[in-house]
């Protein structure tokens, strides 16, 4: 039965009952449950919740596409950089039932973003993932796949979170968007829209659009509990719990908040932004070009206390520790990311939506050990978060190591606003990430552990990630403001063609990849056809599919490609993109755009059919039928079975489970006298990966005259 809060009960018993009831409703599942969606068309991914908190470890993930088992039960996404991200609201002189509360902070959920300050009484109303068109289908030997695959049972990324879409909206300004809404306990309704892109110039950023409205609604239904209220000195702060480079943080334990357990630096860049704009506009500044050109809170990895004896671990060079799944690429920088978010727009007041270039009016930070200790006392928190002061960065403030006082929480605050009942204001943020590419992290990491780079040289290379971040955020900032000046939707960017459906099918000694025809789909913005071709990429560097590096192997206009270069025992993965001729690129005419490289990847190994191949042995043939023991045994990912045929024979080689059920037919054909070998990759005839265990392989052969019949079986052990 749906539970409701009685306003009469509140009036009778006061604020204590209100907060108690709100907490009770959260625990009892009042209204909508907390849900989440995952979005990632380009290099940056994120998990977004309808109660604002974001992913536990999947926020602002960059670069995307890499996974690893932390232990046998937990496959983790490696790129996450924040735990929690979103806004918390503060008000002054809030009156309820005749009692005035000088300072109140309202966090959206019981696990507050600001270290458990605030009442935690936020209530979700909805969340939906909106797409312009359904995502491409991925088919491997008749099996439908997803990316990331639900079958991986990813930690923090549930099947519900990975739901491909809720709504199809053909006129959507971008390819994908997440929209959510929740109500704060003060009666403010927050609506959020998160825009993502596959355009190569914007694949490292998100746009966030927020609307804050004084509705008086404190729960998930449509009833108004606090009608007619005016809210005073309303401020909103955005904060995050950092763990920059989650893979590196797991390696050295630098993901928590206590002293010595976090190694992330933070800095606000933008204190003199108004001087940069001068008398011009953000799109066309006329002020001091040396002033801060963005309004951006930045995060990056620093040196970790526990690793100081082994040298400076900034960037977290890989030691292949902390995970049950090995990554032997020693030295590769696991935490090269520079991550940031900042203000693009905040109105001057609820009645004046003009962009206030003096916002954010407060940027500050506090280390874990120095935080106000009483979460029920909101005054010190309000004064910390909404002081009107730009606090120098930790390093500028004399902090020599990022771990000495615990994790550093950063806060970017807008306001204050006077909010009569029914009034509202909007805030727009841009967020993004940048850093050395995975290839460069590997190259420089190998050089570092080989002693060819000093700590200072290593750190200087990693610090170039800041330039990458600033370039991506700067480009997005200019696009946003230029769109406004040109009368475009501010979140519009040039669109590549849509990614096609992909089908991968095994053939004898080859793999056939085919895809749907998107050549007739016109450019979204202009309606003019600009299709130029397809690109086929292949990866074969990882048997698990968790850390794939794709390489271009073909380009053209055909709708299929037969890969005849496959080899025994090698896993293969594919993806197909579509690209245009650049004629409809209204931002950079002539520059070709390519569809997302992450929406139609195959995530299971292509179940190639490797039939027998002759093995020469000095031109000899066996004098009798031979079935050798497979090698390696036990095996993963593939094993080889060798056999010999003394005369032309009908040969059948089959795999059975211990129940005698047929799993895979490796050969069933006529063979000339000779020696042969066959590879098995642990998959059945349908392409599904079999569970670990003992299997039997059986060779059956009969010569052409049916005068000689041979049958022999042996055991093999498949381990994962």
Overall description:
This protein has 720 residues and is mainly β. The chain has three domains: 7-132 and 169-486, no CATH class; 502-580, Sandwich (Immunoglobulin-like); 613-718, Sandwich (Immunoglobulin-like). 12% of the residues lie in helices and 35% in strands. It is built from eight helices and 35 strands. Helix 1 (7-13) packs across helix 2. The protein is elongated and about 100 Å long. The two termini are 46 Å apart.
Tell me about the biggest sheet? Answer: 10 strands, mixed
Indicate the mean pLDDT. Answer: 87
Strand segment tally: 35
Specify the number of helices: 8
Strand content: 25-35%
Q: What spatial form do the alpha-carbon principal axes imply?
A: elongated
Class derived from helix and strand content: mainly beta
Give the SSE layout.
Elements: H1 7-13, H2 15-28, E1 36-39, E2 46-49, E3 67-71, E4 74-77, E5 82-96, E6 99-106, E7 123-131, E8 138-140, E9 143-145, E10 167-168, E11 176-183, E12 188-196, E13 205-214, E14 231-242, H3 246-252, E15 264-269, H4 273-277, E16 296-301, E17 338-349, E18 352-355, E19 362-367, H5 378-385, E20 408-419, E21 424-434, H6 438-449, H7 455-462, H8 464-486, E22 502-507, E23 510-515, E24 531-539, E25 551-556, E26 560-563, E27 573-580, E28 613-615, E29 626-627, E30 639-645, E31 649-657, E32 662-671, E33 674-680, E34 693-703, E35 709-718
Parallel strand pairs: 7-10, 8-22
Antiparallel strand pairs: 1-2, 3-4, 5-6, 5-14, 7-11, 8-9, 11-12, 12-13, 13-21, 14-20, 15-16, 16-17, 17-18, 17-21, 19-20, 22-23, 23-26, 24-25, 24-27, 28-33, 29-30, 30-33, 31-32, 31-34, 34-35
